[in-house]
Predict the 3D structure of the following.
Amino acid sequence: MNHATASMRPEHSGRIAAFGIDLGGTKIAGGLVDEHGSILASASLPTPAHSGAAAVLDAVAAVVDQLREAAHEFRITGLGIGAAGVVDPRSARVLSATDTISAWAGTDLAAELGARTGCGIRAINDVHAHGLGEAWQGAAAGKSQVLLLAVGTGVGGSFLLNGVPQTGAHHIAGHMGHFASPLASGLPCSCGRTGHLEAIAAGPAIHRHYLALGGDPTVADTRELTARAYAGEELAIQALELGGRAAGIAAGSLANILDPDVIVLSGGMAGAGELWWDALCAGYEAEAIDPLQALELIPAALGNNAAIIGAAGLFLAPGNQERIGS
């Protein structure tokens, strides 16, 4: 595509930018991000998740084409992807994935998107991209060791050293929902095992626990449950606080192991208000050893833009240009 390569010619401007894509099961959200982490233009499309990898990649390329309209003043350094699944950041290949996106495992993002867009490609799991965004330009900016715990429909996270996500030897790191939780004993987890954090702390798990306690079966989801908790319904309060406490215990255990500068909480449950946050902090205080009692637990700051900024940060954020995946 001639227009793709033209947008990367350095004579257009001394300013640099990158494209960042947050590729999820329902939406592909993209941004043109400058070297300061500001999103200068945005575009999105629904993810054709059941049409196969090629259709998804075509949609990503279409989002990038929309963003090019605002990119003519910049030298584009590359296209960063925060993608669902286990991603090898060295090769930008999807190593494994659930069936949320059909035939997604094995997709070579570098080759396929490079051919479609003319850009250099780097990729990482979407939660790691979220963590990179928060560590570079968000709640943890300026911190050298950052733990992100994302609690929403599922539970995941990222640990970043000097701004670089640590993906592990097999690029599995960050599956924090599959950390054993003493409050989830015997409860089935989405991974097929029992007793994991996700089985008690994720939003749908909190709703299931509420129903198991004898809650009103007409309560449709965790959002409605949370509203009932703030209206004073005891069973809703109990389920919400137990989920928050479980997340806090996990945060304390992880802090004991990793000793971060700060813990950033993101995901839908982080917006559940003081009942959840108070329970989270109580769980953390019960589990973290004494030298870590003063560690900050703070809400994420970038919202839905975090993974877009973090994906672009694979090219723009200090420490990531050469070291990502090392």
Summary: The radius of gyration is 20 Å.
